[in-house]
Amino acid sequence: MEKMKMKAALFDLDGVVFNTEPQYTVFWGEQCREFHPEHPGLEHEIKGQTLVQIYDAWFAGPLADKQELITERLNEFEQQMDYVYIAGTQDFINGLRKKGIKTAVVTSSNQIKMEAVYQHHPEFKDLFDAILTSEDFERSKPDPDCYLKAAERFGVNPEDCVVFEDSFNGLKSGRAAGMRVVGLATTNPAERIRPLCDEVINDYINLIG
Predict the structure, then answer these.
(1) Among 110, 137, 175, 196, which has the minimal tally of Cβ within 10 Å of its Cβ?
(2) Which helix (H) or strand (E) holds 106?
(3) Does 107 lie in the same domain as 42?
(4) 62 lies in which domain range?
(5) How far apart, in Å, are the Cα atoms of 82 and each of 19, 137, 159?
(6) Cα–Cα distance between 47 and 192 in angstroms, integer?
(7) Is residue 2 part of a domain?
(8) Which phi and psi angles does 104 have, rounded to 5°?
């Protein structure tokens, strides 16, 4: 990681900055057991998918009228979540910034969710030079739109950016953007995400001295 040349480091949020994925598994497990009892374990299949993707695949047609209810439940759930940093996150990001590397969060989360993050972590905004949310993108991951917009925000070329991701859609998005991709084995096993990554890490401990 020390030898990696980059001008911008672009981080997904859940499973990359915060260890929130286990909590989302609990939430979606409850919803899936209620609305899809015929499909045990569905919450594990939809990991890393955006809300739109989940709704389109599993809550369309006869269940379309449940989307509003689930969204309300999700917003309430996210207000109460524990936002615990992945080990070494803050030191790593501060180390990047000291080296003059721009940092950004690039997340499919919306502003409502981010307000909950800011309440839990008032220091969060100061960690990053930019925070891009779902409201900033026209197309969701795995489309590269979000990461290309982040590079444009900083005025850097895609090949000078490094993406930190945990989900399959996110990893594909970073790769499609033509960026170096570092996968975090926080949500999916390392062996499953490795084909989509240039490097796999478990956390940020000792990545920059």
Answers:
(1) 110
(2) strand 102-106
(3) no
(4) 21-80
(5) 9, 26, 34
(6) 13
(7) no
(8) -145, 150
Closest CA to 203 of 43, 104, 109, 84: 84
Say if residue 119 is in the same domain as residue 161.
yes
Could you tell me which residues come within 8 angstroms of residue 121 by beta carbon, excluding any fewer than 6 positions away? 83
Q: What is the identity of the amino acid at 118?
A: Y
The verdict on 90 and 184 lying in the same domain is yes
Output the pTM of the full model: 0.89
48, 49, 54, 56 alpha-carbon torsion, rounded to 10°:
-170
* Tokens 């990696």 found at: 4
In a domain, 1, yes or no: no
Distance CA 180, CA 171 (A): 10
Does 208 fall in a domain? no
Q: Is residue 182 a contact partner of residue 203, using CB atoms and an 8 Å limit?
A: no
Taking the C-alpha atoms of residue 194 and residue 184, their distance in angstroms, rounded to an integer, is: 10
Q: What is the CATH number of the domain that holds 159?
A: 3.40.50.1000
Per-residue pLDDT in tens (0 to 9) along the chain, 209 residues: 545 579 999 999 999 999 998 899 999 999 999 999 999 999 999 987 888 889 999 999 999 999 999 999 999 999 899 999 999 999 999 999 999 999 999 999 999 999 999 999 999 999 999 999 999 998 989 999 999 999 999 999 999 999 999 999 999 999 999 999 999 999 899 999 999 999 999 999 988 64
Amino acid identity, residue 14? D
* Angle ∠(159,160,162) on CA atoms, nearest 5: 90
Residue with tokens 């940093």: 85
